[in-house]
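Re: the request from the purification team.
They wanted to know what the chain is likely to look like in 3D before they choose a buffer screen. I agreed to run a prediction and write the result into the notebook, where they can find it.
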Amino acid sequence: MTSTYFKESGPSSKNIEPPKKVMAIGAHPDDIEFGAGGTIAKWAQQGSETVFVIMTDGSKGTWNPEADPLELALRRQGEARRAAGTMAPGAAVEFLGWTDGELRHGERAVAQLCHLIRTHQPDVLVAHDPWKRYRLHPDHRAAGFIATDALVAARDPHFLPELGRHHRPRALLLFEADEANHLETLGELALRAKVEALLCHRSQHESSMEINDPADLAEIAGFRQAVREAAERTGAADGAELAEAFHLISEV
């Protein structure tokens, strides 16, 4: 829930036209919710069709050394589906199935995502910023570079022609941005959907949300407040009440 860095005086743009279809790409089952959950929910409320792409199985997402990775992966898949439905009812969810911690930026993953972009034909992509400095988790770096490479492959007809007709999205929004240049403002309904989607990830309550007891209403309230305060800090960069920040690339 850190503050967002804006180069120079603040963001240079705000609120793109809601997409007809958005594809949100995350390394793990809860990454999209943390980075862009409010924006995805807002667009869904405005009529956007949504496709979630989750690249790894999340099987290492626990502090419990005795946990069964397969059982955790299955549990997290169910959590991801419930969270997606909370943000964007009726959304499609695609699981690429890479082992948590072992996602690789290479030909196979780029081809997988290129195929999905050409199949679903989104006009906006939302993904990790692969250029974020001091990023520790390798899956986040890899997911961002896979997304940018797959966008280029999907848009150009001579890349991977065996994977279907080429398709060019109109914009790419990168969350966890190293240098944010764009805000998406949020209303109360969108922020509430983001929080409820995050809370669907019960397996991550302790490790990612500081919720040690799911029945502790005070801890739940503390997490809700932390998400709100993060959105308030981000919005304050441009006089907005609530917002999420991105690096927007509109020439793709």
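For the purification team: The CA atoms of residues 5 and 179 lie 6 Å apart.
Please add any questions underneath this entry.
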